Automatic annotation (TrEMBL):
Catalytic activity entry: 2 GTP = 3',3'-c-di-GMP + 2 diphosphate
Gene3D superfamilies reported for this sequence: 3.30.70.270, PAS domain
GO molecular function term, any single one: diguanylate cyclase activity
TM segment ranges: none
Domain of life: Bacteria
EC number: 2.7.7.65
Xref: PANTHER family: DIGUANYLATE CYCLASE DGCM-RELATED, REGULATORY COMPONENTS OF SENSORY TRANSDUCTION SYSTEM
Cofactor(s) required for function per UniProt: Mg(2+)
Keywords, in A-Z order: Nucleotidyltransferase, Transferase
Gene Ontology cellular component terms for the protein in this record: plasma membrane
Protein name: diguanylate cyclase
Amino acid sequence: MSTEDQSVTELHQQLSLLQNLDVGVLILDREYRIRLWNEFMENHSGLLYNDVNKKNVFERFPELPVQWFKHKVDSVFLLKNRSFITWEQRPYLFKFKSYRPITGLAPTMYQNATLLPLPSPTGRIEQIAILIYDVTDTALSRQELESANHQLRTLSETDQLTGLYNRGFWENRLKDEFSRYARSLSSSALIMLDIDYFKKVNDQYGHLAGDAVLKNLAHILREATRTTDYVGRYGGEEFALLLIGTTARKAQSVVERIQELIAAARVSVDDYTITYTVSMGLTEVHPIFQTHEQWIKMADQALYLSKENGRNQMTLLVPDS
């Protein structure tokens, strides 16, 4: 038996104490050949030590990203320092099924890995040990917490009926954009929009029909705007659109798109087919505004003029310099 093989055998005996622990242990040499493979690795991979001994790890596990993993391993050989791989960086190093009852929802085992240099008697690093930890419980708990936090954020930011931003969140974004304008003088447009005679819809068809109209309009507003814009339900049947980096002239194309989509819309509730129109007020941010409330007020004035002049139209107001 060669000195190298004897040293591996001795190390295998020393690590036999880990066989009953829930930790995977494997050793790689500089040619990325597997020199040790403990019971944890056997149980989860289905491969015995004799199946992998002296075999190239990339040949036995072709799903390993070669360049990425070599970089990790080579840095341990070169720097003689331990290295770590967390499930946040990569969900798993070896694709093992998760068999834990509590974590049955996870198709694969989430893993953390520690790469340790194994110095020879001469001090040269010829092999490294890799410890594999099953952290599926931790990963799923973290993901569930992040999902719950995301849902809470969504609930705090959106209107429950329409799925658009609620008034509080939307107005905070308007404040942010107004502050940005004060620094950069980059144009943005504001549209206030109101469903014409919405009370008649509720009175004639019922509140469920009114809700259906609100949802339909919300869908249209999302379709007519960009993901960078902020579309919110301002209150009742009134909506507000903040078009980031858009002049009033360019915003008129958005208005036309909204009008086209609404004209083609048909809202079916029970045996009824409902059509509706909207009135809009448009204005662009301007140096004359001292606060974001003044910006909203002018857009509201434009909306009021649209209603006064017969509804189903848009009015543009330009501040006096």
